[in-house]
Amino acid sequence: MEEEPAALGKRKSPEKPHVTETPSQESASKRRSLARTCVHEVAVPSGYTSIKDESIHGTLSNPVYNGDMAKTYKFELDPFQRVSVACLERNESVLVSAHTSAGKTAVAEYAIAMAFRDKQRVIYTSPLKALSNQKYRELHHEFQDVGLMTGDVTLSPNASCLVMTTEILRGMLYRGSEVLKEVAWVIFDEIHYMKDRERGVVWEESIIFLPPAIKMVFLSATMSNATEFVEWICHLHKQPCHVVYTDFRPTPLQHYVFPMGGSGLYLVVDENEQLREDNFMKLQDSFIKQRPGDLNKSANGKSSGRSAKGGSASGGSDIYKIVKMIMERKFHPVIVFSFSRRECEYHAMSMSKLDFNTQEEKDDVEQVFRNAVLCLNEEDRCLPAIELMLPLLMRGIAVHHSGLLPVIKELVELLFQEGLIKALFATETFAMGLNMPAKTVVFTSVKKWDGDSHRYIGSGEYIQMSGRAGRRGKDERGICIIMIDEQMEMNTLKDMVLGKPAPLVSTFRLSYYSILNLMSRAEGQITAEHVIRNSFHQFQYEKALPDIGKKVSKLEQEAALLDASGEAEVAEYHKLKLEIAQLEKKLMSEITRPERILYYLDPGRLIKVREGSTDWGWGVVVNVVKRPSAGLGALPARGGGYIVDTLLHCSPGSSENGARPKPCPPCPAEKGEMHVVPVQLPLVSALSKIRIFIPPDLRPPEARQSILLAVQELGTRFPQGLPKLNPVTIACTTLTFSTSA
Question: Where are stretches of biased composition, namely Low complexity (predicted)?
Fold first, then answer.
């Protein structure tokens, strides 16, 4: 194996990984033929020599185990599982990257069985308390000698296998816990959680602080830079680290799209992962056929229109129709994913007319519920969060999100596993590792708030949640239903459903918590500089330096070839642009005089609004009133005290009333809402020739959204810009302007 040159003289890159592919095999499904292939790579530190018996363990580049198994399975292991087991038997770290429900847990169980066989201790970490609780129950049933440490609960802390959250492990490492001296293996479940902006640093610090003698098992959803991750582990701990990658999905998925307000499902990606362009075009046509005029009718109660995600009556009826259809066609259990707690609860409550459980199942649910709440105080059992849940659970409906009481979350998980919950309304945290597959998964929206803006969910996020559809050995295929309320680009949908998973990018930062713990450690040998130097963030940065250097050199060469001629023309052009802007400003100040502009401010007129440097774009006039209110902006009453009530495209959560934040336009990639905002005359920067129909009642959200669709359609029809009223038309023929001060 060739050794790559060291980067910047600071570190040596691990040897070039070897790639081996397993032969294709027939799938267990009789209805399809699928090649179960896996890719194996290994990162090896410089100068490392393996001493393993090749007849039993194979080679570093082709691990094959021919010895006695520490654990036997009732089923035949998939190729990626066999290769992973061979890596574990070599006593070497391994990263297993596979789809949800592919069978990564079998690899973790084998590592635990090895530790028990060799009289060693093992730690199993997970990102969530709910996942830790579930893993504890599963592993305790399998191995008995298992403990749990989550911060809320501590059970059997001296057990050979300890299940804990990653934060607990980091705390043990900071304290120098004696337990770690007996540990041979640490299993990191859902390691792709390391890219989380808030908690990702916990995983990095835990890996950095682990003693080199401890071997690690990393379980991850599919990620595109798995090799880079194992190179970091190899560089950090000076030990070989394998990566076993497979994109095999045990149960194929069918992806449907449901247009909100529509009446049908469109199969856009079939079980062979082929995009059905014909169905996608029919989906797009369904939006075009229902014109804004039809939506206006829906606002008046004459027909159903599309609505924004969640919260509206139309959105609720859409969810109701889908869930009812799923139950009628025996596609349950179903998980309905929403991106807010309130939306989960709203959708669950909208199912009040549906009942999915038999009387026998209702009795079982009630008995389990009564037993579960016995651990609570008498007064706590009367809490609304407890009492309101039982009627839902008895009908086979449940809610699962981080805001629920722990006892309720565990109860919901238990009932779902037992098949007593047919429809579960959950946030995306439910998809994080919990082994609770369903037959069908529904997405109430394809956009989520990430702390900065509303964006389309990424391919990795979609894969994680959609992977809950399809139960291995029970369903021939899983079903995913995506609800959308506006036209969607084909490439956007394709990237989300069929795109490659996002790479694992470090979000490492040195927090005050970390610094204080480093200062107070008994050993005092690990400094903040050591942590930064060994972080995955620094590793990725150093690895990218050569490419960045090449780009800088290329740009410098291009800059050297630039011709400096034409600077005078550029300066003159800039000067003219400034003069034009000044003239337009003076012109609009005359146009917006009440005696000139009020005649044209009819309801439905499109006007452009600008507040300082904030461009609101085109809005629609609703009404003009004369009142002393300041309205939007703090300008003096130049407009004669007239206020133009205007429908403007606002950021979600904005409103014209004082109880909510001041209205502001949405970010470029953000899906906004239409609100009536009071605007002073001086803030009107342009008037369009176009007027559109507006419904008499703008209180329903779908009525306001129909106006947004109409404005967006006009923007598509006039790509060069909406036609504006000529100043001559507004009786400005006698005005003269000078650019002088």
Answer: 297-314
